[in-house]
Description:
By secondary structure, the protein is α/β, with parallel strands linked by helices. The chain contains eleven helices and 13 strands. The chain has helices at residues 43-53, 68-79, 126-129, 144-148, 150-159, 180-183, 194-200, 206-213, 254-266, 272-286, 299-310; strands at 4-9, 13-21, 33-40, 58-64, 83-89, 96-103, 106-112, 132-138, 163-167, 189-190, 219-223, 229-233, 236-240. The strands form two sheets. A nine-stranded mixed sheet has the order 5-4-1-8-9-10-11-12-13, with helices on both faces. A four-stranded mixed sheet has the order 3-2-6-7. β11 and β12 form a beta hairpin. It binds adenosine-5'-triphosphate and magnesium ion. It holds the Pfam family PfkB. Keywords: Kinase, Transferase.
Amino acid sequence: MKEFDVLVVGELNVDVILDNIQGFPEIGKEIIADELTITLGSSSAIFASNLSSLGNKVAFAGKIGNDSFAKLVKESLQNKKVDTTHVISSPQYSTGVTMVMNYDMDRANVTFPGAMEHMTVEEVTDAILNKAKHLHVSSIFLQTSLKKDVVQLFKRAKDLGLTTSMDPQWDPSENWDLQLQDLLPHIDVFLPNATEFIHITKSMDVNSGIEKIKSFCNTIVVKDGENGAHLWENNEFKTAPAFLNEEVADCIGAGDSFDAGFISEYIKGKAYEHCMEVGNITGAINTTASGGTAAFENFETIKSIAKKRFSYQF
Ligand SMILES: Nc1ncnc2c1ncn2[C@@H]1O[C@H](COP(=O)(O)OP(=O)(O)OP(=O)(O)O)[C@@H](O)[C@H]1O
Ligand SMILES: [Mg+2]
């Protein structure tokens, strides 16, 4: 028996969100924002929290500083019953921060990666991997030290008998350099969104991207917003429609919540069609409340939103 269903290796940061800002920032001037929210940010944390709320045993491995933001990060994960034993607090670095300036539905973000850039694959030891059935890595481009040896991490996980998945997320440098041919054979489920997939495969569209990698990849799930998601599995390409939400609060974290729903079923050995359906419903549930975790308080509330808003029975 393993201690955890899923080990999440990912970035951790705090979001400092300014709302109702009176104008736009300008060099040499000062303006006022009427609202401030300081909360746990990061895609990987949204994934881990929501996967835990769906009823799975989740552990997190990541790097933060030894500052007050670090305390907020750890406590927020623990409130969602995510194990933080392997979240490393390093006094050398500051906890990552994203400054979010909200203007209606648009926002300007500035991220200071801090500690997350200094996590290495050596810090994710075999002993840690051995505690979990499944390894999920997210936001690889933000974790520059981890990225260098990420092939080795996935290979080790597979050798130890874990199943594996990755959501690459956006590359702020826009170089999109992942060694796909070395990496994808060790990733059971690869979960980018459509734009990321096109960039990563350096292709014109999703179909030509699949053509390029199909000789060495395993299962590919491409998230496509209101169009739902596409599955490449066993030499077949299928699309699973979204549970369309006409009254979207916002889409922050929809992709991470899709991942949580999909992986929650995948690790139970469920059929891919079912994993896709649950991914799409958890993605849709995410869009009913602002931010990535508000709609995922616990499994009861998740089930109730699914039923009320989308007539979906878990
Ligand atoms: N308007 C919507 N109504 C219902 N479901 C939606 C809507 N928008 C997105 N989704 C669901 O959320 C999933 C993920 O959305 P998206 O393709 O935007 O992922 P993403 O870009 O990775 O998101 P993130 O910003 O969290 O990284 C979709 O596959 C779909 O199931
Ligand atoms: Mg995403």
